[in-house]
Amino acid sequence: MSRFGQLFRRRRLDSELAQEIAAHIEEKADELAEAGMSREKALLAARARFGNSTAVLEQSREVWSFAAVESLLRDLRISARGLRRTPLFTAVAVATLALGIGADAAIFSLMDAVLLRPLPFPQADRIVVLWERPPKTVKTASLGSRNQQNPASPANFLDWRDRTRSFDRMAAISVFPMGLSGFGEPREVDALQVSASFFRILGVRPLLGRAFDMSEDVPHGPRVVVLGFGLWQRQFGGDRTVIGRTVRLHDEPYTILGVMPERFDLPFAHADLLVPIQIARGMDSDEGRYLNVIAKLKPGVSMARAQADLSAVARQISVERPYVSRDWDAGVVSLYEQTTGEISTALLLLFGAVTFVLLIAAVNVANLLLMRGTGRQREIALRAALGASRSRIAIQLLAESLLLSIAGAALGVALAFAGLRAIVVSLPALALPRIEVCRSTRACSRSAWCFVWVQPSFSVLSRRWPSREPIRTKRSNRAAFAAPAAATAVCADCWW
Amino acid sequence: MNDDEQRSLFPGALEMMVLQTLRLGPLHGYAIAQHIRQTSEDLLQIEEGTLYPALQRLLREDWVGVEWGISPRNRKVRIYRITAAGRKQLQREVSSFDRMLTGIRRVMRPAES
């Protein structure tokens, strides 16, 4: 039905209902008068028996559904007007909420990106990182719990790979700066030397061309390279014909095999390009420990079993090569744990703190609303006397806090965006792993969630007291209806 | 009368009683209220105003129709009558109400069952 039609229909419905209710009360009064009551008393009694006629009219209207929306819009308009008239109150309330919601949204987005979002690799729960564990007597450079994590030597890596049974595949990784030339400006790049199984473990396929395979990852194998997306864009201008061409690394010619997809980056190492590591037994550097090792657990193998398996091999090694490996052990850490380990406690604490900040903000705004409610006692009592039902008054008060929290959430999102940008810019990339995944839409949805959570909690708090008072007045009206009911009736008459 | 004595009806109860009342013939609002009060022998003290939202719901579902008429006291009133759909609805309501009542009775008097 058209808007005009609705309006027309509502007018008619209203006037018909009003007439009908008036007729009802008159009929009742007639009957009471016939029984011997004075006309005036009969009318009062008839009205009392009928109940709150304004509420009846409203409830009847609401049956035809458009009333609810209309009255909500009206309440919002009235609330907006009220808030505009008290700019200081509004500013304080909105700013308080915005700070609470903004901080919460920013930290949540961070936590979500770092801790909650699954790692971007298929079957990531089976991917593990392997470390050597130095004996207690050896001092290592790294700090904290990570001093139990030492890179592996090539010889030990090969023994792990060949003797353990818990892993499907194992790959060695070594970061290595290399001079790139022969294409555009010469520059130094971060090269990642990796085993061929690296790609299979992480389940990534090149965007263009192909990755190197086992046949190329052999000692003195071919010189081949897979470009990272970033380097391909910067140095090669995203040219798709680079596949098969030659670049020079450390002045040696390397053939370009492929290009990695854009979102590929290891949690713990950034790479401009990948080259095969081509480890051989009996190399000069055999005993130096410089390899990061990743592996994929066989399906159904537990971390504990993998750990026992690896430790057994490490014990064999410490017996076989005591001159470098006496008392050295080895450890298995899940990729998730490795990525988030130390940061997770700090982030969870921070998140707990901002949640309390939000809670405090909500309580403060509730308090402000409560104070405001005290000043509005008379307005509310008057509305109740005019026949506003308890729920209508409650909705009116809710509308106000709804407006406040919408404004607070909007401003909070803006703050969260700004805060996130500041955090990302001001922290070194490695301090917070996976920060790059953190996307701003998260902040938005988070704020929406906050809003849904905050809104009712403080509305309920602030609503409790103001709506009680008028209700009590209404009750007493009913108990001894003579004088107050007459007042109500007069008001109701004006209403019609 | 205090609030404790005035037990509120379950949702739909008033609508059911209005339909039942209208089955006897078209009536205006006040007469419906009167009939319910009298036949319940004053056991059901419904606030008469609540009748009107209920009537609106019945109108919306097309279970009753309405037109202007004249009351026995010569007042212009709206007179409600039950529709065919309303009769069907009443039958459904009554049978589900009977089931509910039987259920409640059984629970309240477990010794007999």
Any overview of this molecule?
The complex is a heterodimer of chains A (496) and B (113). With 496 residues, chain A is of the alpha+beta class. Helices cover 59% and strands 13% of the residues of chain A. Chain A has 15 helices and 10 strands. Chain A has a 6-stranded mixed barrel with strand order 2-3-8-5-7-6. Chain A is elongated, with a radius of gyration of 37 Å. In chain A, helix 13 (390-426) runs antiparallel to helix 14 (440-479). Chain B is α+β, with helices and mostly antiparallel strands and 113 residues long. Helix content of chain B is 50%, strand content 14%. Chain B has 4 helices and 3 strands, in the order αβααββα. Chain B has helices spanning 13-23, 29-39, 51-60, 84-108; strands at 27-28, 64-70, 76-82. A 3-stranded antiparallel sheet of chain B has the order 1-3-2. In chain B, a hairpin with a 5-residue loop joins strand 2 and strand 3 (76-82). Chain B is globular and about 55 Å long.
What is the fold's blueprint, element by element?
The complex is a heterodimer of chains A (496) and B (113).
Chain A: H1 3-34, H2 39-50, H3 53-63, H4 66-85, H5 87-116, E1 127-133, H6 154-163, E2 167-181, E3 187-194, H7 197-202, E4 208-209, E5 224-227, H8 229-236, E6 246-249, E7 252-259, E8 273-276, E9 292-297, H9 303-320, H10 322-325, E10 329-334, H11 335-375, H12 377-385, H13 390-426, H14 440-479, H15 482-495
Parallel strand pairs in A: 3-8, 5-7
Antiparallel strand pairs in A: 1-9, 1-10, 2-3, 2-6, 2-9, 4-7, 5-8, 6-7
Helix pairs in contact in A: 1-2, 1-3, 4-13, 5-11, 5-13, 5-14, 6-9, 11-14, 12-14, 13-14
Chain B: H1 13-23, E1 27-28, H2 29-39, H3 51-60, E2 64-70, E3 76-82, H4 84-108
Antiparallel strand pairs in B: 1-3, 2-3
